[in-house]
Design a protein that fits this description.
four-stranded antiparallel beta sheet; 10 strands; 0% helix
Length: 143
């Protein structure tokens, strides 16, 4: 039986309410960062706290990735590549997160639409674990 593991340690956690991204907040200026950082790029402060980021936000901008990215980090076979949406989702009062989108049809994406964090399968690692990554889906989209 395989385990489900995150694409990277310290990026994503599962809560009773669903997945949450792990970021940080600067205790000096209030700036949020993702992924979590020990230093603040806004004020250069070093007093930060790890926080779970909001699971919903709005689509700030997007595009469709129409060709296979370079490997690494792309882990799939080029001939199996399927285009996917990529965008920035603004988590109100926190940060804009660059992420994969579950929707790849340009006619179904619109700047300002409400999005929610989900996990999606990425690959199987050498230990047989199912690796998942984070993505944002339009709110109300069937999974």
């Amino acid at each position: 039986m395989s385990n489900v593991v995150s694409v990277a340690e310290g990026v994503l956690t599962e809560t009773p309410e669903g997945p949450r991204l792990i970021g940080s907040r600067c205790n000096e200026c209030g700036n949020h960062m993702f992924p979590a950082q020990e230093g603040c790029p806004r004020c250069t402060g070093t007093d930060t706290t790890e926080v779970q980021l909001e699971p919903r936000g709005t689509l700030w901008t997007w595009t469709i990735q129409g060709f296979a990215p370079k490997a690494p980090p792309y882990a799939g076979a080029v001939e199996d590549f399927e285009p996917f949406g990529v965008g920035y989702v603004e988590l109100a009062g926190q940060v804009k997160v660059e992420a994969r989108l579950t929707e790849s049809d340009p006619d179904r994406l619109e700047i300002g639409m409400e999005m929610e964090l989900v996990t999606v399968p990425l690959c199987t690692d050498e230990d047989g674990n199912d690796v998942v990554t984070f993505a944002f889906a339009p709110v109300g989209a069937s999974s």
